[in-house]
Amino acid sequence: MLSDDAFARLVADDVKNRVSPSQADYLRMSENWDRWKRTLKYLLANLDSQLEELANQELSEVARYKSLGQDGVRLVTEVQADIEQRRRKIVRFRFYVETRLDEANRLISSSSGNELEKIKVFELLQSAIKKHRDLIMDNDFEFTEIDEALWAALDGVWSFDSIDVDRI
């Protein structure tokens, strides 16, 4: 398992589309979904913090340079241009992080519905096999190797491959 730092780097590289297909598949494995989602949320919080720091830096620099007269106006313009360029990069990267977070949320939400459906189908089939066995036993019907193989499946045993269908 990857350390938290290595996992965070992998997530960031995935957002930048700088990972191999197998690395992207690793992130999207169901056992990594929650960790992937948490890391993306942390990354968003970090980016929001960077944007806030830039805004504070801009206010501070503008206030400092305004008092310098004409030279200060030029410096304010340069600082604002530099900060705006950095802000755009962060905002663009943030958009892609949000896109990945949406993907993680879709995977998580779609699988939880699928898991519930699988459980319902499993319980239905289990009940059907038990009812099949009870009906045969309670009514003294003759059962076959196929019936016994079906009942063995309730115990997690696969017996169908050993059935000689020519004898039935």
Sheet-strand content, in percent, reads: under 5%
Overall mean pLDDT stands at 90
Percent of residues in helices comes to over 70%
Q: Structural class from helices and strands?
A: mainly alpha
Whole-number count of domains: 1
The biggest beta sheet reads:
none
Shape: rod-shaped
Rg, Cα atoms, Å: 31 Å
Which sequence of SSEs, written as H and E, runs from N to C?
HHHHH
Structure keywords:
single chain, 168 residues, mainly alpha, 5 helices, 78% helix, rod-shaped
What does this structure look like?
There is one protein chain. The chain is 78% helix and 0% strand. With 168 residues, it is an all-alpha fold. It has one domain. Helix 1 (4-15) crosses helix 3 and helix 3 (33-66) runs antiparallel to helix 4 (70-138).
Topology, element by element:
Blueprint lengths: L3 H12 L5 H7 L5 H34 L3 H69 L6 H9 L15
Helix pairs in contact: 1-3, 3-4
Structure summary:
It contains 5 helices and no strands.
